[in-house]
Amino acid sequence: MAKRMRLDKLLSNMGFGTRSEIRKVVKQGRVTVDGAVVKDFGMNLDPEAQTVMFDDETVIYKDTIYVMLNKPQGVVSATEDTRDRTVIDLLDPEDQVLQPFPVGRLDKDTEGLLLLTNDGKLAHDLLSPKKHVPKTYEALVHGDVDASDQDAFAAGVTLDDGYETMPAKLIIGEKESREDGIYSQITLTIHEGKFHQVKRMFEAVGKKVVYLRRVSMGPLLLDESLPLGSYRPLTEAELESLQNAHR
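Given the sequence above, the corresponding structure tokens read:
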């Protein structure tokens, strides 16, 4: 059965702009389908059988998908789950058809950057323990994070199961005093992805993470304009940076 999709979704997925930008240029008559100008950005078409032109450029349909999701709390990083909503449930049906999966995982209560793709090779490269892809998190920590914690993380800390982490870079931000103690804002860059690693690293130095979000993975930075629970295709530059970083 031929795969049909909306015109604006096709152009967005192929990197020609955001959905709102594309709707404007379609209304301006800059897009043709099979040689005819179309003004209906919601028209359904078969991207493999029909010829779409954006200005003078032929739109080449690809069946791979690369999207940046700003993951909210309360959803799990899985393709399916019998109890909880998954990150796949946040995607439009036409994107779910391409069967993307999360590259790595964020805990249910962790927010931020999550890459979803159906490109197994790229996912393997980003997750390979041999590659040591850096991942940066911002967190609010219950406890007075200080220079001794920076030194401990730089040397590597021993987790509750005996695993010794690789050196990590800890940056200390603002602090505030509350009735139950001091809270510290921090930024932490790690080079591995053990289960609950950031939380367990702070537990190893006697402190507790109360809020956590990921802001980067390798060269890919979270788009701060992306609302929680929303996603967008990677730009061509973002995809190239990911592909080139681990060749």
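The chain has three domains: 5-59, 66-129+220-245, 135-217. Try to locate this feature in the token string yourself.
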